[in-house]
Amino acid sequence: MQVAGVPVRKDVYAAYEKYCMATESYTDEYGNNVEPRNEVIESSDFVYEYKPVSQADVDEFRKLIDSISGCTDEDSKVTEIVKEEVSGYFSGDKSIDDVCSVIQDRIGTYINENK
Question: pTM of the entire structure?
């Protein structure tokens, strides 16, 4: 069972928790054979071991998820600033460093004025 991310539907998340904690093979409610997580991924920078997680880990993660009180949307003013300034780079009128500097200054000013 390969999982791309953490599910957001509660029923699917409960199945995901079961999968993450599995220490033995089992057949899920849909008839799929589920194997315990046991994989090592290595690169030149790190080694990551996928293995079953503990109930304490699941409880801690659920506590974190339950503490989320909402989400934020992108700030349309910030997006507007970026769109305005990058056009100078794409038209060849400004360097990337100049554009980034102006964007940083304008957004910094906007944030400071709207605290």
Answer: 0.52
